Amino acid sequence: MLLLRCSVRLGTLVGHGSGDALLLICGPPTGTTTLDPVGAELFFELSRIVEASPERVFEAMTDPEQLAQWWGPEGFTCPEVILDAKVGGAYRIAMQPPEGELFHLAGEYLEVQPPTRLAYTFRWEPADPHDRETVVRLALHARDGATEVVLIQGLFATEERRELHRAGWTDTFARLAGYLAPA
């Protein structure tokens, strides 16, 4: 297994071979991050402060009815959300863009630790030929009555796919913050 400590917000992860496992640990900057240039892969990290407790944010992320209210980029709707938020449980989200055909996002939960951590696989149905299944890791940190939501996703096949996902998550986090905003 390859273990990396990272302090980058947008960058490259590496492995030594296609069969190696990769563990990503993010924490405070350590001064330098050295990466092996062999087999470079793409990931990104986003964070957002949400004006709600970690318990409330976690609930909005794991309750299908609530998730349907805020999930996806601006203008998208989610007419069907099925999820079983437990390790090994599956999810499937029907996403309807403002224009175009309905498509699905699906995966399996890898880690569920209420109210601080979620991790799951992420794949499109139907699959995009320029995409691959990725892993999403979410950490929820209490911050003065609010929650910092930190997301890491990767490894992407191309920079273009990474940027598409980064833009989608940016909109999605804005919608989550709006959904949970105090009245």
What brief labels describe this structure?
21% helix, two-stranded parallel sheet, eight-stranded antiparallel β-sheet, disordered N terminus, 183 residues, Alpha-D-Glucose-1,6-Bisphosphate, Chain A, domain 4, 3 helices, globular, alpha+beta
Structure description:
A hairpin with a 6-residue loop joins strand 5 (77-83) and strand 6. The chain is globular, with a radius of gyration of 16 Å. 17% of the residues are buried. It has a single domain (43-180), classed as START domain (Alpha-D-Glucose-1,6-Bisphosphate, Chain A, domain 4). Helix 1 packs across helix 2. 21% of the residues lie in helices and 44% in strands. Mean pLDDT is 83; it is low at 1-39. It has helices at residues 54-62, 64-70, 159-180; strands at 2-6, 10-14, 22-26, 40-50, 77-83, 90-96, 103-113, 117-125, 134-143, 146-156. By secondary structure, it is α+β, with helices and mostly antiparallel strands. The protein has three helices and ten strands, in the order E-E-E-E-H-H-E-E-E-E-E-E-H. The strands form two sheets. It has an eight-stranded antiparallel sheet with strand order 2-4-10-9-8-7-6-5. Strands 1-3 form a two-stranded parallel ribbon.
